[in-house]
Amino acid sequence: MLWTRISAPASTAARAISRWMAVCGICLLLTEGILARANEDLLSAPRLKWQAPWVTGVIAVGLDLFIDPIAVAVGYWVWFVPGEIYYGIPLLNFVGWFVLMLLAPLAWRYSSRGARLGGTGASC
């Protein structure tokens, strides 16, 4: 489960990866709930191969548009080079989230298909 705590002290990188995986999982679940029909999922439905990545990217940017202004106002993070378009948040931040979340379902589908076929993922 993504929300478990590790008893040993975790590095900053491990915590960052864990949090990114949680965000990725939430976006993927929302995408599956929006797009999937009965008896299909993101991994097996051919029609979702390209729809899911785009919708996941849009959901991630939508969440980021909502969360980032609050996090900046509270002081959770500060931008070294403030943006001028949206609450001082650089445009590259939103582009980055979109690209990462566009690639996440593709990587998930690629790695899962290889595991199901007994390969390394290269058979996709």
UniProtKB/TrEMBL annotation:
InterPro entries named in the record: CruF-like (IPR007354)
TM helices/strands, residue ranges: 20-38, 58-79, 85-108
Pfam families (UniProt xref): Caroten_synth
Residue stretches in coiled coil: none
Keyword annotations of the record: Membrane, Transmembrane, Transmembrane helix
Keyword Membrane in record: yes
Stored PANTHER family: SLL0814 PROTEIN
Listed name of the protein: Carotenoid biosynthesis protein
Provenance organism: Nitrosococcus wardiae
